[in-house]
């Protein structure tokens, strides 16, 4: 962020936004991308045919074709952990509690109270897309959240030149 | 709906970043290009059968064969583009009806059945009345088959350059452009008036498509930041500038000029050059338009 030499580095998770009006769910021809009852946009990799329509539809670049399974994949907000009443791995792992997960419909939940306490400083990514994202950023800036707001040489991103095609940890 | 309920100990780690590269590449270009020809020749046959029923009668079988061949090229490239191509049948057994991909797959399937019915009627049964009835259904089905790719692109909301209704118009124009060009190349015993009509369709399709592309190029940036950023790839010294203009010249400008010259001079030779140029050029035009929005970082 900023202009050389007055620059600083920030870290922003740009994962799946679990949109209420998810274009990936709509374009998926086989319902591999689907909603579960808690609002999470989940993916059934056994059903996915790998047409990549969801990759084209996601305005957040959050879906990719897993080179190992040759199916679409993305953050599922650890739906399997949520099903077991556990928190998502990112929430547990973050040492500074930068990720907050919870039920927005419950006014007493941590996330509801946090958003309530930071009114005016809460935003979603690309609201003009009408996707109604369920991933909120507090104190975020345009440079972090909008890839077109900052110049990148030949369109490269920070993590764009991956040398391995194996997902970290592999698949079962 | 299938819900994932994996035990926590079997947690699957996923990448949280998009992998680089063009996901929809030349295979999808082949898909759109072949589909344009496959449906376009059906539109042209219908027109010729209404306008010149006697002379166009001999085109029933050859045009049907061309349509079947190109629709199958389209289907082949659709399937091989799937990363899990052997699961393509899921579209038929677990269809999701909000998806234009699903709707299109079903309509194309019915169109293929009608096309085989037409081939059977004219080649095996020698029943032209039945053929002509089926041709009407083929035309009705060919319209959504031509348009559904535009609907897929419209559902790809992340790529603003592909949105309706411009893409829908471009898909229809691509069909009339390549359809008229292909039938002109097939030639046959068509009278001069019929060839002139096809030439006019070719020329007007080229002109209209060119105007639409130029409108996007000039006025596109007004719509959105993303469109402006995308179009930079074809403007000035952009990565795809040369390819874009080669496509525009071959697909639209050259055919339009050649059609005018050929109609003025009654030259069948120029018409064939125009037709060939349009067919080759459209592939390039489609490819550029397909690829450039994918160069944008979304995250």
TrEMBL record, chain B:
Gene name in the database record:
nrfD
Q: Which domain of life is it from?
A: Bacteria
Q: What is this protein called?
A: NrfD/PsrC family molybdoenzyme membrane anchor subunit
Q: Which Pfam families match?
A: NrfD
What InterPro entries does the annotation carry?
Electron_transfer_protein, NrfD-like
The record's Gene3D superfamilies line, in alphabetical order, gives: Formate dehydrogenase/DMSO reductase domain (1.20.1630.10)
The positions making up the signal sequence are none
Q: Does the keyword Membrane apply?
A: yes
Family under the similarity heading: Belongs to the NrfD family.
Q: How does it sit in the membrane?
A: Multi-pass membrane protein
* Keywords annotated in UniProt: Cell membrane, Membrane, Transmembrane, Transmembrane helix
**Primary residence:** membrane
**Subcellular location, in the record's words?**
Cell membrane
TM ranges: 23-49, 61-80, 100-122, 134-156, 168-186, 198-222, 242-261, 273-292
């Amino acid at each position: 962020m900023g202009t050389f030499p007055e620059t600083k580095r920030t870290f922003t998770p740009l994962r799946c936004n679990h949109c209420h009006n998810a274009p990936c769910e709509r374009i998926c021809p086989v319902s591999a991308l689907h909603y579960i009852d808690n609002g999470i946009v989940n993916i059934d990799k056994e059903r996915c045919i790998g047409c990549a329509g969801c990759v084209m539809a996601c305005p957040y670049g959050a879906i990719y074709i897993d080179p190992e399974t040759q199916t679409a994949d993305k953050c599922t907000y650890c739906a399997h952990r949520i099903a077991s009443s556990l928190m998502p791995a990112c929430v547990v792992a973050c040492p500074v509690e930068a990720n907050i997960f919870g039920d927005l419909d419950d006014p007493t939940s941590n996330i509801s109270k946090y958003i309530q306490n930071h009114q005016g400083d809460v935003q979603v990514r690309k609201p003009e897309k009408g996707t109604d994202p369920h991933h909120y950023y507090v104190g975020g800036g345009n440079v972090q959240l909008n890839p077109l707001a900052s110049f990148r040489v030949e369109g490269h991103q920070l993590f764009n030149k991956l040398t391995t095609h194996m997902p970290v940890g592999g698949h079962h | 709906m299938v819900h994932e309920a994996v035990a926590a100990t079997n947690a699957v780690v996923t990448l949280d970043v998009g992998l680089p590269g063009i996901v929809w590449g030349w295979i999808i270009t082949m898909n759109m290009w072949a589909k344009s020809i496959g449906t376009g020749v059906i539109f042209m046959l219908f027109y010729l059968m209404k306008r010149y029923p006697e002379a166009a009668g001999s085109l029933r079988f050859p045009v049907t064969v061309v349509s079947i061949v190109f629709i199958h090229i389209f289907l082949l490239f659709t399937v091989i583009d799937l990363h899990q191509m052997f699961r393509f049948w899921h579209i038929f057994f677990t269809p999701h009806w909000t998806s234009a991909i699903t709707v299109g797959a079903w309509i194309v399937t019915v169109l293929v059945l009608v096309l085989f019915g037409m081939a059977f009627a004219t080649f095996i049964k020698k029943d032209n009345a039945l053929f002509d009835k089926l041709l009407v259904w083929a035309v009705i089905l060919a319209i959504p088959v031509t348009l559904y790719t535009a609907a897929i692109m419209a559902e790809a909301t992340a790529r603003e350059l592909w949105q309706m209704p411009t893409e829908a118009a471009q898909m229809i124009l691509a069909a009339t452009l390549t359809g008229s060009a292909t039938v002109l190349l097939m030639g046959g015993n068509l009278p001069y008036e019929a060839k002139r009509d096809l030439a006019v369709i070719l020329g007007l399709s080229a002109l209209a498509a060119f105007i639409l592309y130029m409108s996007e190029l000039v006025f596109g940036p007004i719509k959105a930041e993303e469109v402006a950023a995308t179009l930079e790839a074809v403007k000035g010294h952009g990565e795809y500038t040369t390819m874009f203009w080669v496509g525009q010249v071959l697909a639209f400008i050259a055919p339009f000029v050649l059609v005018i010259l050929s109609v003025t001079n009654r030259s069948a030779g120029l018409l064939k050059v125009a037709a060939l140029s349009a067919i080759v050029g459209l592939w390039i035009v489609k490819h550029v338009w397909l690829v450039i929005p994918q160069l944008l970082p979304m995250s």
